[in-house]
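Let's practice the habit of predicting before peeking. Look at the sequence and jot down your guess about where helices and strands might fall. Then scroll down.
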Amino acid sequence: MKTINTLNEMLSYSETIKNENKKIAQIDVVGDLHLAHLELIKEAKDKSDVVIVNIDGTTDYVVDKELTAEEKEIYQKTLLSKDILFCRDAGVDALCYYSDRDFWGFHDTSNATEAFKYFISKYHQSYLMSIWPKQLEACKADITVIGQKDYYPDVIIKYFINELNLPTEIIVLPTIRDENGLPVSSRNKFLTNGQKKRASYICREAQKISEWSSYPSVEEIKKHIKNIISNARMFFITGNIYSSTTLEKLTTINEEAFIKLIFKFKDVYITDNIILQPK
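Done guessing? Here is the structure:
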């Protein structure tokens, strides 16, 4: 497996691969890889000749625990070492862990439509706009594989690709869950077994909303979710319902939508998405 540390290395590597007429699949992750990421890698391997994994902001791994600066640095290095082994064992062809700073200014958006600029401004996605399309360009990705667990940014990524006319196919895999229905996440390791059971209960009950024969008002749905979370003795963060197309907050469900569910226990955040089809 090739490891890449700079943008120039990536540009050179991807150019070589494309000159060999090979198809490239890209996977973008934060780090601390786990079973759900393995499923993304398997799908990428099945659909391409070369799989590239980008680990964003390696020096800024998300750490849910309160650590000193020295402890955080050790934790980050440990995670990166683990992720390198994980990708090598999974058969990844190239692992990139350069800094996001390498990408600022790389993508030309001067021809972006006013509607697109408004979309970026409205949803505060200037970071994604500045980084993510550039990674696809640098990788020369024919395919990007993403997970439904991050449904909100998934919608934004689709919008980016369509608006910027990037030659990249999007493959979205269903959320990978454990045997109790809890979305697989690197944060789960910070939960006790009892907390995992309570979090799983919340996710299972929330997913049942999609099976209702009809939907009440959005406020009633949010109230229902709050009650579920309260009964499980966890803290509600959000249960907003958005359009799957425009990301507009909805007050009634008359189009495909999703519930962006976030709750927490102490300093551990748990996220899930419930896809709602109009009844």
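How did you do? The longest strand covers residues 235-243.
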